[in-house]
Specification:
By secondary structure, the chain is an alpha/beta fold. Helices cover 23% and strands 26% of the residues. The protein has four helices and seven strands. Strands 1-2-5-4-3 form a five-stranded mixed β-sheet, with helices on one face. It has a two-stranded parallel sheet with strand order 6-7. The model has no long low-confidence stretch (mean pLDDT 92).
Amino acid sequence: MEPLEIVNRLKTKYLNEIADVTEFRDQVFVSVNRDRISDICRFLHDDPDIYMDYLVDLCGVDYPDRQHRFEVVYNLYSVKHKHRLMLKALIPADNPSVDSVVPIWAGANWHEREACDMYGIVFNGHPDLRRILMPDDWEGYPLRKDYPLKGPADSEYKGFEELKDLHSHDSEWNIQ
């Protein structure tokens, strides 16, 4: 099934949820309202003719000047049918949250944690939404476009001295 055929199937079931459909370099992107993302993903996964059984990737994106500041992009693939679709959930800045798709694709677990850690997008119903890349006491979301390049002003990472002590012996190992 071609990606645009999949889009047509989506439109018959979720027409009011689809905000935009674009094509770029032989890829099809479907932007949807976040409110029914679980239903849409479940449909794409469970429909035997579509069967998107593999979540290749999930990532956050920040567009500070747009109405929906954030997007969560789901790169979906069917191993059985060998077709691909890019799904984008549109997320507003005033409530950066969306339902988790971990119940559909267990592999979404760490991807959602990373998007939460880096962008502050909360995944409702996620089984363990702890920081995954940044320390627990880190303030802010480093991949947001408005995050200061040098980190938060007038602050130094609280564990910096501990890291210096931990690596004080590196020179003994002739690390260059």
